[in-house]
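Quick note —
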Amino acid sequence: MSALAHVKDLALTLGQAPLFDRAEFVLQKGERAAFVGANGAGKSTLMRMMAGLAEPDGGEIVYQSGATIAFAPQETSFEGFATLRDYAQSPSVARPGSAAIAPAYAADAALEQFGLDPERAPQGLSGGEARRASLARALAADADILLLDEPTNHLDITAIEELERTVASQRGACLIISHDRRFLERVSTATLWLRQRRLLKLNRGYAAFEEWADQIEEEDARNLARLETQLKAEEHWLRRGVTARRSRNEGRRRKLLAMRAERRAIKDLSASPTAAISADRGNESARLVIDAKNIAKAYGERTLLSNLSLRIRRGDRVGVVGANGSGKTTLLELLLQRREPDSGSVRMGENLTLAYVDQRRDIIDPSVSLKDALTPGGGDQVMVRGVARHVASYAKEFLFTAQQLRQPVSALSGGERNRLALAIALAKPANLLVLDEPTNDLDMDTLDALEDMLASYDGTVLIVSHDRAFLDGVATQIVGPLGGGKWVETPGGWADFEREYGQAINPRAAPKRQSVETPRSASPKKQTKLSYKDERRASELDALLPKLTAEIETLEAKLAAPDAFNAGDFGKSAARLEVARTERDAAEAEWLDIELRREALSGQE
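Predicted structure written out below.
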């Protein structure tokens, strides 16, 4: 392989905070590198530098002579373009002589592949259409170096899988920022980690990232422990107050101060903020939350749903999937009785309190400040599930700083607006959460926090999402369309749905898709706690076992009574006692098996 790009000693400081410190890496021809790092670490900034749209404070980026570059940013401007064809034929980078430009035929083909009319005016595009136009421009250019910043946002699963195939067939090099873990696992051949201002590189795809990251963090922890030990020894020497050989002692004193500074720097760098998302289900709902029977909905001659029946019970986490425009949001609004079906019926259970984050994030007002959005009644307090909290403290849980509270909502990034919408929705007690595309623009740390919250939430959740890994992590069942208005339901997550209906929903998909890495290189995330289904079953068994025990004691006492045989139902009671004992033995064995697995998993933490 030959090097197409070399980032050398890159440095950048924003305000008082350095983002990079001698960041360096090489991007080889044929390499598809996943670019990961904490929220705000500077990944998008570094990618913009590679595109010539930002300048570093120090260092340089060197490209192979004649190498061309194409860039698909998170946000794009269509100002000055009369048609999408004009836009798709424009340069996407600002480096003289290196901008890859698509010929007209390639621009048209790429736009049509993403379902866009080349003659269409770009004004009024939706978020998903703008993202597809940006991708079409970058991919049609057939560049030596392809830079993709969150390419899967606003794409449905079918479009994401099509993008996977396209990226995997690129002849040059590709650098990808994405929160879509499944996408990264399937397309990447290398991983770049922007960590503590430095760039680390693994010559394996993202599937191996978790194991690699654990090894690095464990080594850092050992190094910090050694530093702490040395620091204690030096501080002990300093407290002794030795005055002999003053010059030598001054040297040791300077060494001590340097060690203290090193420890502070390490702890500051390792203390990256993480979201602390939580929710309260409020009052318990009825066991049957939503009962939809034979519902249908059509617009003109287009049938979205036909004869769909669906029962959602308390505690279910229902993932709703499907192509853009297939009717996912319509289904949500039918289930919530916000729209009337053309036929059929929807009944909602009693005692339901709803928190709804829709796809447009209508829950937030872009004309107000972040603080006013959280405290619409004014003041510095926000009621969080019935408890008064200072607005700055609550905002911090969603990774907002006190300084950002005065910032207008309209100036927030897509990920920040998403976090704000979640903060507003989750502030009130709710036993039914409805989340329409909750993962858009979220970084991986916040995604993990959202997954953990949903795993511990004991209400009911309806989730529309195209994030396959997220659905596998939280959903108990998946509902999706097969076409022609027919919808189906399967237990489990996206992988279970794809296994059963993958060819029907995407005929071009391979029956069993694998990571681009060999199976030995795949390193799934280490499981350290029971799955949601096991936790739920354990709770059911905790409630069932005392009931069975009490029933057995009652039956035994009844059958032991002197007149039991003459009571008329002796045989029926004796048969039920035998069945109850069998049920209790089976429940105890199942409960014991779950608890043994819980104990084994907790020992891995």
